[in-house]
Amino acid sequence: MNDSFWQAAYIIAALCVVLSIKWLSSPVTARRGVFAGEFGMLLAVVGTLLRHEIVSYEWIFGAFVAGAAVGAPLAYLMPMTSVPQLTALSHAFGALAAALVGSAEFYKDAAAGDPTTGFKMVAIVIESLLGYLTTTASVMAFGKLQEIVPTRPMTYKGQNFVNLLLFAIAGVLGVWMIAAPAPAWVFPAFIALSLLFGVLLILPIGGGDMPTVIALLNSYAGAACAAMGFALENRLLIIAGAVNASSGFILSVIMCKAMNRSFANVLFGAFGQAQATTAAQANTKPVRSASAEDAASILESARRVIVVPGYGMAVAQAQHKLRELTDLLNKRGVQVDFAIHPVAGRMPGHMNVLLAEADIPYDKLHEMEDINPDFAEADVALVIGANDVVNPCARHDKTSPIYGMPILDVDKAHTVMVIKRSMNPGFAGIDNELYYLDKTLMLFGDAKGFTGEIIKALSANK
Amino acid sequence: MSNEIEISLYVLVLAVPLGLELVRKVSPLLHTPLMSLTNAISAISVVGAILVSGNGGSPQLSKILGVIAVMFATINIVAGFLITDRMLKMFKKKETGGK
Fold first, then answer.
1. CA atoms of A193 and A198, how far apart (whole Å)
2. Closest Cα in chain A, distance from residue B40 (Å)
3. Domain extents for chain B?
4. Least Cα separation, residue B73 to chain A (angstroms)
5. Do A93 and B76 touch (CB under 8 A)?
6. Which of A109, A209, A388, A411 is catalytic?
7. Three-class SS of residue A71?
8. Residue by residue, what is the 3-state secondary structure of chain B?
9. How far apart are CA A101 and CA A225, in angstroms?
10. What are the distances in angstroms from CA A287 to CA A263, A418, A435, A441?
11. Chain A: nearest CA to B10, how far in angstroms?
């Protein structure tokens, strides 16, 4: 087949990649964006299959079928709460594919008696390092999200030193291979170090930092793909990889900002250790609690309610009950909005997906900056399953580990209601002074059950 | 530096700012679908996998690694696009959503 066919297919595919992200900018055109992405992918694959150097197809088609047979059920069977796990797993597969291609290319050149060195080897070294590292790191992230691996940060003395040492050794091996054809053991050793490095990278990272880490791994997977583009002199791969890498990078920066942390702090500083002491002394202070009936009558007489959902809401599967409550209140002329903190959920934007699944219209979901000024006018702020993101300590308590983190200003609302199982401090183990305010009513119970009771009470006093 | 590499580097320095600009415009509402979509797109590395596994000149080891890579990339592509679409289908405005 003529070369110009696949070249044209690649160029159109590159355009599709760009349009795909562009159309994703708004929910109205987003599905068109997915279609553009799929079309671009199809063009790229068909174009590649028709290149004259491709001579055997059986195994490739077998691999397509096997991959689709695994991928499709994964996408359809995963519950929406598990999207972060699926994404982590997906990163692992994608990164491993990129890494394996690098290795295959390396051994192809070696077999041809023309060992890879120089610029091409630079590309393969970067591709392999990022690819293999992202594979194991993503599997670890999956394990932590699925809670197969303990979610608390695992640290030991000299951890950063060991990591840096391994990284330095990998770097030396990499430079060796770039400079001159190295002995046969060097490349496998480099791969082994990259794999190991991925595991060590995730060990000290706590479950609460997973949104940042997933975004970062997304970025690495893209960078590995772009590096492959350099190794194979394929510009389509460079464009797609670069777009993905920048996307992951921006998302991880947003996540870091939303937690007021630096990259270095997320990657090297084990969170969740220092706070144990602050939590212990707090439980003696008095709190006001209320019943579902009290809550119902307050909500009913409100004009404006802002709901602040957190991951706990999703774990309790309370989003459908929450929708019912919203509908009931809307019917009574109460305006209900949702305030979404950037780190609500376990990956960027996760909470929006969970609420959309419960048929809550997306124009009711508001970002933190947009909704914060509205809390002062809200009659009720209803906090469900969120904790640190509504903790006023972040504003003024310099000793608090979350000091400086941007928060939702629920304490400015006229009344605050918090649905919570008990007074146990949350995920990060930090006590929340919001619970002790005079305007705060604690609604003790399971998020789903308690919301159900409020609905019952609301329906009763018609 | 060869001409090929030079062109590739030009592509890279243009693609990165373009990517940053495009992604910055995506509403935070859609950050999760954005991630799964870009993830699926980055599995375009399947192209490299096909090239190395289907090439008659590749040694056996490279072919095997390539075929495994095709399979993993396909999982990534299929799962990535399908879950993105599944999520986006759920985002409704009030008119069409349950009132």
1. 9
2. 8
3. 27-90
4. 5
5. yes
6. A388
7. helix
8. CCHHHHHHHHHHHHHHHHHHHHHHCCCHHHHHHHHHHHHHHHHHHHHHHHHHHHECCCCHHHHHHHHHHHHHHHHHHHHHHHHHHHHHHHCCCCCCCCC
9. 10
10. 37, 11, 7, 8
11. 10
Predicted complex ipTM: 0.93
Contacts of A257 in chain B (CB under 8 A): none
**Do β-strands A304-309 and A440-444 pair in parallel, antiparallel, or remain unpaired?**
unpaired
Determine how many CB atoms are found less than 10 A away from the CB of residue A55.
Answer: 11
In angstroms, the CA A267 to CA A246 distance is 19
At B6, the amino acid letter reads E
Task: For residue A439, give the DSSP letter.
Answer: T
Return the pLDDT at B97.
42
Contact B34 A251 (CB under 8 A): yes
Question: What percent of chain B shows pLDDT beyond 70?
Answer: 93
Please report, rounded to a whole number, the percentage of residues in chain A having pLDDT higher than 70.
94
Q: A110 vs A92, A121, A180, B54, B64, CA distance in Å?
A: 27, 12, 13, 17, 15
Q: Do A94 and B43 touch (CB under 8 A)?
A: yes
Q: Residue A285: exposed, middle, or buried by beta-carbon count in 10 A (0-12, 13-18, 19+)?
A: exposed
Which residues of chain A make contact with B11, given a CB cutoff of 8 A?
A: 235, 238-239
Please tell me which of the candidates B42, B56, B75 has its beta carbon nearest to residue A244: B42
Average of pLDDT values for A278-283?
47
Q: Which candidate, A225, A36, A132, places its Cα nearest to that of B46?
A: A225
Spatial CA neighbour of A48 closest among B52, B43, B62: B52
- Of A56, A54, A128, nearest in space to A95 by CA: A128
In angstroms, rounded to a whole number, what is the distance separating the alpha carbons of residues A323 and A360?
A: 6
Q: Is the pLDDT of residue B96 over 50?
A: no
pLDDT at A89: 93
Tell me the CA distances in angstroms from A89 to A65, A82, A83, A361, one per residue in order: 19, 11, 10, 29
Report CA torsion sign: A129, A131, A134, A136.
negative
Per-residue model confidence as pLDDT tens digits over B14-47 = 999 999 999 999 988 999 999 999 999 989 999 9
Among the listed residues A414, A422, A420, A408, the one whose alpha carbon sits nearest the alpha carbon of residue A451: A420
Enumerate the residues of chain B whose CB falls inside 8 A of the CB of residue A236: 44, 47
d(CA A169, CA A87): 30
Helical ranges in A203-334 per DSSP H: 210-231, 235-258, 263-268, 276-280, 292-301, 311-315, 319-331
Annotation marks residue A446 as catalytic: no
Q: pLDDT per residue over A325-353, tens digit each? A: 999 999 989 999 999 998 888 888 899 99
Is A321 in a helix, a strand, or coil? Answer: helix
Count how many residues are written for chain A: 462
Choose among A108, A229, A362: nearest Cβ to B8: A229
